[in-house]
Each structure stands twice: as structure tokens, then as C-alpha cells.
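Quality-control log, excerpt.
Job 1 of 2 completed; input and output follow.
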Amino acid sequence: MHGLILPLVAGLVGAGVLGLWLGMRALPPTETAIIEAQAARYVAETGGAPTDCAARPAAIAGVRLIVTCRDDWVAAVDALGRVVTLPDLGPRT
């Protein structure tokens, strides 16, 4: 009986760590992380400053945030931080 306890405990701890790791990976990014990622993309594409960017919640199905930088750069982003192409946002989506 004592020979089974240690492997059982090790297996349970391993399963718990694996479950925690997988659960943490499934969390969506924060709004701050989304804005920072899109601001970095804006800087790389245009040479502008990250402070040129702001975001607002979207009232569009499947879109979490609309990130705008200055007046001519717009990105719609879904809940997982992926850019969503929407034709009515202008030329830079």
C-alpha cells in the first residue's frame, strides 16, 4: 500500500500543474495587452508613437476593442487579441 501512495500523489500533483498551465494559457489577453500590442504594430508600420493610440469598446459582434491611432489608423480586435477585418473601419484595418 505504501508503494502506491507516492506515485499516486506525484500523478495528482502533475495533473494539477498541467491543468493550471493549460488554464492559464486559455485566458484571454487584458485590454491593456491588446492596446499595447496594436500600438506596437502601429509604431512598426508607421513610425508613430505608442501614445498616439487609444481604444474603445466595440458594439460590433465578434469585436472586443477598436484601437485607433491618430485619425488614419484603425484596428478592430476580437476577444483573443486577433485583428478582425471590417470593411467599414476605413483603409487601415
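Job 2 of 2 completed; input and output follow.
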Amino acid sequence: MSLGSITRHQVKIIDTGEVYTCAKSQHLLKGMVSLGKRGIPSGCHGGGCGVCKVRITRGEYITKVMSRDYVTADEEAEGIVLACRTFPRSNVSLEVIGKLAKNVLRPSVKKKYGFV
């Protein structure tokens, strides 16, 4: 999907079925915030705290440096990455894992109050 010169991709959270758009210059975590979830843990946004761990199950993406304390080379090879350091290059499907799951799997504020 493209709006003018900004390329956007759809990101699907498999656990909830929710879909959001994310520019290729925007990390997955920033796009996730647009869903209206309260309290999405976002930590440092630099790949050093590990709270935004996800598993990419489909699609192409690039990553920036992430702490090996939170994502090992083997995990990264299996698609486990930090959302704050991951940028879509196609439509992406992901599963939330770890500390991020608690808040992302909770119903959104918009949905809870019927604004969807």
C-alpha cells in the first residue's frame, strides 16, 4: 500500500486478528500504538530492554541492532525480534510474546467502549 511517496504495509497481529498499517520507515512497535491499546510496554526503543518481543511468522522485514541479552542469534533466525527495531518491507504477520503479550492481548480502549 502506498500513500504518495510513503510506502505502508499491513501488519497483522495473529493473536487478536487486528491489522494496522506501518510505514517502511516506522518500526512495528510505533504502528502498534495506533491500535489504541493502553499501556503497551515500549521500554527503551533502542533494542536494549527486550519488552517488545514478537515472532514474525510471515513477510519481509529488516532489523536494526538488538541486544543479544534479549534476542539470541538462534531466536532471530526463527523470526523472533524486537518490534522497536523491526521495519516492514512487505505485509507482515506476527505473534506477540513475552511482556508485550499481556497488554496487546487485552481488548483495545476503542473496542471496549464501542468506538470501532
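Post-run check on job 2. The CA atoms of residues 46 and 84 lie 7 Å apart.
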